[in-house]
Structures are given as C-alpha cells and as structure tokens.
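Hi there. Long-time user, first ticket. I'm pasting a complex I've been working with (about 696 residues overall). I'd like to know whether the download I got is complete or cut off, because the file seemed smaller than I expected. Thanks.
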Amino acid sequence: MGQEGKYAYAVTRIRVLETRLLDRGKIDRMLDARDAASALRVLSETEYAEVMGELAEGERYEEILGAELKRVYQVVGSFSPDPDLIDLLRSRYDFQNIKVLLKAGHLGIDRDDLLVALGSIPPDRLKEMAAGDFVDLPPAYRQIVAEAQEEFKSTGDPQLIDLVIDRGMYDYLYTNARVDFLRGYFLRLIDLTNIKTAMRLKRSRAGVIRWAFLPHGSVDPRLLLEAVREPWDAFGPKFAATDYAAVVEEGLRQLEAKGTLTDYECLVDEYLLAYLRQAKYVAFGPEPILAYLLAKELEGRLVRLIMVGKINNLPKETIKERLCDVYA
Amino acid sequence: MGLGLVLGLLGAGLAVFLAGTGSAIGVGLTGQAASGAVSEDPDMFAKSLILQIIPGTQGIYGFLIGFLTIQRLGFLGGGLASISVETGLSLLMACLPVGIVGLTSAIAQGKVTATGISLVAKRPEELAKAMIFAVMVEFYAILAFLVSFLMLQGVTI
Amino acid sequence: MEIKASPNRMQLLMLKRRLTMARRGHKLLKDKRDELMRRFMELIDRNRELRDEVFAQLNQVYQGFLVARGVMSPQMLEEAIMFPKERLALSAREENIMSVRVPRFEWQKEGEVGDIYPYGYAHTSAELDRAIEALSEVLPKMIELAALEKSAELMAEEIEKTRRRVNALEHVLIPRLEETIKFITMKLDETERATLTRLMKIKDMLQARGV
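Hi, the file is complete. Here it is re-exported in full:
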C-alpha cells in the first residue's frame, strides 16, 4: 500500500490535532484579556489545559509552554512513521543544549537550568557526554562541536561557538532532511535568516564576520556580502530577483520607518507559515506531521509574546504589531 | 469438465478476487485513517464508519458477478452445464470489467475516504461532502458492474 | 546661658581671643559651605542630566530585551548572552573636593574581539542587538553616574556637617561668648566702680578726721 498505508493513520490523527491549534479567535481573546492571569485562563480552555494543571499563575507560562511542546513532541513521536525526521527536528534542541554546555564549560559555571528537554538526546545524557569531552556524541554532532571548540580556543571569542554550531547545525539539518518539503523549509529559513543577518551586520556596523552566514542557502553569499558593504539603497534591489523580494522590501521599509527589524522577523514567520500551509494539501506523507510540529512551535512563540506583553502591561496594539498569523 | 467451464470459473474467481482485494485495501486504508481520528476524538467513530464502508461496495459487486457466473455454470445445482471454450472465454471477459475496475476504483476510493476522514476531523459538518467525493469514484465501479452484468446476461449457454 | 568664667581680666582677654577666633572660623566655614553648595549644585545638575540620559538609554535597553524576551525562549536568550565577549576592569580611587573624599572610577575594556555581540545570528532576535548595543553605550555612563551619585551623597553629608558647625558658631558659641564678655566687662566695671566709691569714701572719711 506504500505511502498511503504508511501515513493514513498519522495524517488523519494530525488533522484532528490541528483542529486544536489556537485559532485567530483564541489569540485575539488572549490579546483582549485584562491581565496575564485572564490571558492564561483563555489558554486553559484549549489543549494546553492538559499540561497546565496547577501552573495557573501568570508568571509560570514558560513552564506551560515547555511542557506543552514536550507533550506534543511525545505524542507525535509516538505515531509518526518517520521517527528520523522527528529526531531531526529535535536535534535543533540538542545543538541548543550543546551550546549551553560548551559555554558553561568554558566559564566554569553550572547552567543546567538552561538545558531543554526537547532534544533527541536527554539533557542528563548530554551532560555526561560533555563531562567526557563529547566523545560519545553521534559522529555528525561531534565534528561540529570539535570545530567550535577549536575556533574558540584559537580566538577566545565566545561568539564563534554560536556561529560555528549554528552553521554546523543547518548543514546537518539541510543534508539530513530527506523530504523535499522539510528541505525546502530549511532552505527558506536559511535564506531569510542570512538576509536578516546581513541587515543586522549592516545596522550594527559589526563588521562582517567569517561564518556569520548559514550554508546551503539559495541566495549567493557574495550577494549578501555586497549587500552589507554597499549603502542601504542598494540593499533591497540585491534581492529583487529572489523569492523573498516582497518580504525584504517590506522589512526594509519598516526598518526605515521604525528602526526595528521586528517587522521583518514577523514577515519571515508569516512567509514560512505560508510555506508550511502547503502541507494542508498533502493527504498522505510526512509533510502534515512536520508542518504541525513547526506550527506548534510558532504558536508557542505567539503565546509567549502575548504573555510577556501582558505581564509588562504593554498596550494591546504594541503586542499585536509583532503578532504573526496562525497556522490553523 | 471442459476447458470452457474452467475459463468460466476463472472469470468468476477474478471478479471476486480483484474487486475484493481492491475493497480490502480501500477499507483497510480508511480504517487506518479512522483509527487515527478516533484515537484523538472518539466521537469520530460513527462518521468514520460511514466513510469506511464506501470502498467496500466494489467487493460486493465483484461477489455478485462471481455468484451469477457460478450460477450460470450450474455449480449451484441442476448439473454442470457443458459449454464450449468460446462461451467460457466470453464469461471470463464478462467478469473482467468489474474485477479490474473494482480493484482500481476501490483503492482510489479508499484514498478519497481516508482523506475524507481528515476533512471530517477538521470540519465535522462536512460529512456529506466527503461522501459525495467518494461516491464520484463509486460511479465508475457501478458502470463496470453494469457492463459486467449485461455481458453476463448476453452470453447464452 | 553664659559660659562659667570667673570675671577677671585674664578671662576677659582669653574670651575675647576666643570670640575673634570663632568669628573668623564662622566666616571661613560659611565660605566653605557656600563653595560646597555651589559645587554641589553643579554636581546635582550634571547628575540630573546624566541620570535622564541613562534612564532614556536604559529604557531602550529594556524595550529591546522585552521584544527579544517575547520572541525567544528564555533558555535561548540566556544562552545567547551567558558568555560575555568583553570584560570590564574597574578601578576605584579617591579624589578630594573641598576636603571631601569622593570616589572616581576608571574602567577599561578587556578581551575585545571583533564586535560586542557574544552570540550567533541564527536564533537570536535582531532586537537583542539593539539592547546589547545600547547597554554597551550606557555602561560607561552608568559607572560615571554611580560615582556622581556617591559624590553627591558624600558632599551633601559634608554640607550638612559644615552647616551645623556654622549654625553652632553663629547661634550658640558666638552669642554665648559675647554675652560672657559683656557680663565680665560689666562685672569688672562694677568692681571698678565699687573700688572707686570705696576710695572716695575713705578719702572723705580721712578728710573728715582732718588728717
């Protein structure tokens, strides 16, 4: 029965789960909530209720978000026909944890509180590996870690730990994403991130750092470097021929008007969301599963933004500005 | 028992075998999708069941044609008919449309109903539309069944 | 209340000397107070200016962090900034303003490589850049502000102390000295008059006896 038989169960189950994603209405109700506590009350009427339990106070939303994402990964992992792809998504959290462990190791401090339990390797196991200089890591990871260590040792620049690992991670993600849909997602993410990095380097006059850009992008690195060096006027036209022309143009316009890249980040999220929505037309395949997980992560970000806004008493409009669309 | 009779039996067997296999695949696929939906939402059971039955019809058509063929051959009492090779071949031919179309359409329909369950999972009120999509496939199974039936009637023993 | 002193000339002389000294001290202290006040006002002005500046910039820092906090998970945010790129060596020394010892901070950046951002670009919000940038700009000002605030506090203390001394001289010591001097002067005059009268009386008595 091939593809259909493999995915009939999983995709249908995902479709039911999708109905429980927060929709625009729920998000708006959270936005309209008087304070953080009432915003959380809206959340407790959704599938988040399962993990909320006693964590009903406004400040504990982070624990709720963490627990929810963990729950979702567990549920989806339990029935997904492609455990390797779920692990690939999880590997992003491994790299995140590795960065924490590397930096903590060099600083001689203990920051276990920053380890997230979403990776494919449990934090405790990863910590053991860190104690053994990471020799037990999977070879693909180990190579990246070794490179980061070497760069840090020769320069003493902690930024290189992040940069080298980010690069290594996207290389790992892109080459191991055997599904076109996922590979396409990473490609777009890499491109849009690289353009954002170019904007950030340009804005901060940080100087172009070797390795600031991620590999495998469809946008030529030389183009990015030129964009950083040349004046702002020349920035937008550089990317006019790419798929991202509209996003870049609008992002630059907002950057000029407001001086922030927040709008560009939001546009990027929306662009990626639109890409993920293609999975809605796939009846049998890994796409809906991957899209669901990524949409769930995005949803967590929206909830976080609203909660941070509510706790800090930001006006509704300010929060709304940064609020992207939802997948559902 | 002559070659004609064997050919006739082969036709009956093919009608039941092909259409039945198709239906089994279709129903099975839909069943998987249904359990995916029911595992998250038990209320989906009744709606899923309706959709799951639809790819099963091809099997029934195949069975009917197979049954009629066997009857014509006289296996159900009254003594075996003695038929020529040509008549046997004709019976075999008559059985093929429902068998082949039954196989392909049941699988195709199974995919439609499986996605139909996704549709109903998302919008429970759209059950009727999901059924209509499935019934569009059914149409061709019915045409094949009719042709098989008419062909069968046309063969004189 | 006057100072207890036996009314004699020695005392009077001593008291007069003390009064002159008190007056001179009073004037000196008053000058010191005025000068301190002037410096203090300057300090306060500069302080207020700097404080406004620092607050405006900190506001920007917090806004940047707030947005970054809103779009990044706390673990990611902390990971990004857990390993600072620059270190600040701070040395404190004292400086003398009108005999008030005020602190002066000197600082130096260490381990500067490339730029100020200690994190990668792939998973951090661009707003974090602005927060870090603003924070890096505001830090020297914050150090200066800390020195200024402490100086102002110390100077206020000194002014208060000087003011109390001036007041004590002006309203207690000097009036008392003056009063005591007046009292002794009167007492001495009285004694003189008494002696004179006595002498005149003796002279009269001697004349009456016809010596």
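A couple of notes from our side: The mean pLDDT of chain B is 91. Chains B and C do not touch (no CB pair under 8 Å).
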